[in-house]
């Protein structure tokens, strides 16, 4: 089950900006480091889910403010919809009619599976609406889902475009998840949360970092089991010259 990824390889230019794992992102102007379910909105949900398990009095707005600092402001805060879900009237229409991100839709419809509450969902919808009005990056994706596999890309220097053309000019599409860059960005977020006193000093720094990533992994697994069931899962690594090689793991 070998796959050829060389034509899809790029060197990361923007290590702390993010996209979703969705395979429909085009291979133009997307040299971002972080590929995570739901992009920044999904990462925010993962952070909230982590703190729901902790005895810490932290507001969702405080987590959002720190994330905005790390990504470089409102214009760099990213989430997405698609051409099939242009309706933005979240109050009067169903999530299925308004939400073009499969991961966010899964969270909104089954929040308990993601360790989220109804109050958290209301906050996420409010955040989505308000940030978009204020100029955040709500990307519109086009076309159908044709992802052939899920790629776990293990590098902080290189990554793989979600959609690209192979040597035969055939269009290839993948779900892409980047644990190394996610952990690096989480490191900055956690540091700021500690510096601002939003996480008590008696909490173990390394344990917080590990457990936040574990929640992110849980969210990935939960969504992959719904949206990528039966598809192959690969680990992707790079040699010193940036050439990728993939290792088949299992079917999801």
Note down, in words, how this protein is organized.
There is one protein chain. With 252 residues, the chain is an alpha/beta fold. The chain has one domain. Helix content is 37%, strand content 21%. It contains seven helices and twelve strands. The strands form five sheets. It has a four-stranded mixed sheet, with no helix packed on it. Strands 1-7 form a two-stranded antiparallel sheet. A hairpin with a 5-residue loop joins strand 8 (163-165) and strand 9. The protein starts with 8 loop residues before the first strand and ends with a strand. The model has no long low-confidence stretch (mean pLDDT 92).
The gist of it:
The chain is α/β, with parallel strands linked by helices and 252 residues long.
- Runs in which pLDDT lies below 50 for 5 or more consecutive residues are none
Reported for the largest beta sheet, the result is: 4 strands, mixed
Class from helix and strand fractions: alpha/beta
Helicity, in percent? 25-40%
Calculate the mean pLDDT score and round it.
Answer: 92
Secondary-structure element series = EEEHHEHHHEEEEEEHHEE
Assembly annotation: single chain
Q: How far apart are the first and last residues' alpha carbons, in Å?
A: 14 Å
- The number of distinct helices, counting runs of at least 4 residues, comes to 7
Instruction: Please state roughly what percent of the residues sit in beta strands, choosing from under 5%, 5-15%, 15-25%, 25-35%, 35-45% or over 45%.
Output: 15-25%
Shape: globular
How many strands appear in the DSSP assignment? Answer: 12
Which strand order spans the largest sheet, edge to edge or round the barrel? 10-6-11-12
How many domain regions? Answer: 1
* Radius of gyration based on Cα positions: 18 Å
């Amino acid at each position: 089950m070998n796959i050829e990824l060389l034509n899809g390889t790029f060197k990361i230019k923007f290590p702390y900006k993010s996209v979703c794992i969705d395979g429909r992102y085009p291979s133009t102007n997307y040299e971002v480091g972080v590929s995570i379910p739901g992009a920044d909105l999904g990462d925010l949900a993962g952070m909230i889910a982590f703190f729901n398990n902790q005895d810490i009095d932290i507001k969702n707005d405080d987590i959002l403010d720190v994330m905005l600092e790390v990504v470089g402001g409102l214009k760099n805060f990213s989430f997405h919809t698609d051409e099939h879900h242009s309706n933005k009237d979240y109050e009067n229409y169903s999530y299925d009619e308004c939400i073009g991100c499969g991961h966010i839709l899964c969270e909104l419809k089954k929040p308990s599976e993601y360790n989220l509450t109804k109050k958290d969902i209301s906050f996420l919808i409010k955040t989505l609406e308000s940030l978009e009005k204020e100029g955040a990056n709500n990307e519109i994706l086009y076309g159908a889902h044709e992802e052939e596999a899920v790629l776990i890309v293990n590098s902080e220097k290189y990554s793989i475009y979600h959609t690209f053309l192979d040597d035969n000019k055939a269009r290839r599409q993948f779900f892409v998840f980047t644990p190394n860059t996610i952990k690096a960005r989480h490191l900055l977020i956690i540091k700021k949360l500690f510096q601002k006193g939003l996480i008590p000093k008696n909490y173990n720094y390394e344990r917080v970092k590990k457990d936040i990533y574990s929640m992110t992994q849980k969210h990935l697994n939960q969504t992959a089991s719904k949206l990528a069931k039966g598809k192959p899962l690969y680990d992707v690594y790079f040699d010193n010259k940036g050439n990728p090689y993939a290792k088949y793991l299992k079917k999801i």
